[in-house]
Design a protein that fits this description.
This protein is mostly helical. 83% of the residues lie in helices and 0% in strands. The mean pLDDT is 91. The chain crosses the membrane at residues 6-28, 40-57, 77-101.
Length: 109
């Protein structure tokens, strides 16, 4: 194992630590204010419901060229990817509409 591999593993560990800290610290801080924790939980529930709806309407069709190596795509994985894509599209559209509405409100005021 050379220094390149060691630094790669250290960077993986630091990214994992950063992700853990960025999730844990706001949760610890929100224990002082339970309303903020409730709003966060409601947001997570809304996103999970949106994903469930997107997953339900996505298909599990797999083209023959993706069934074998190197993809090994299964129908379940195909439906999961489709659900994630539809969720991303919906959230992107909602975000863009929100930005446009906010800018119009600023322009009117």
């Amino acid at each position: 194992m050379d220094s390149f591999d060691i630094m790669l593993y250290v960077s993986y560990a630091l990214v994992g630590l950063g992700a853990l800290v960025s999730i844990a610290l706001p949760l610890i801080k929100s224990l002082d204010n339970p309303k903020a924790l409730l709003k966060t939980g409601l947001g997570i529930v809304v996103i999970l419901v949106l994903f469930f709806i997107s997953y339900s309407i996505s298909t599990n069709e797999v083209l023959p060229k993706f069934e074998g190596e190197p993809f090994n795509l299964t129908p379940g994985l195909s439906q999961m990817v489709g659900g994630l894509l539809i969720t991303t599209y919906i959230l992107t559209i909602v975000t863009v509409v929100g930005i446009v509405v906010t800018e119009f409100n600023k322009a009117i005021k």
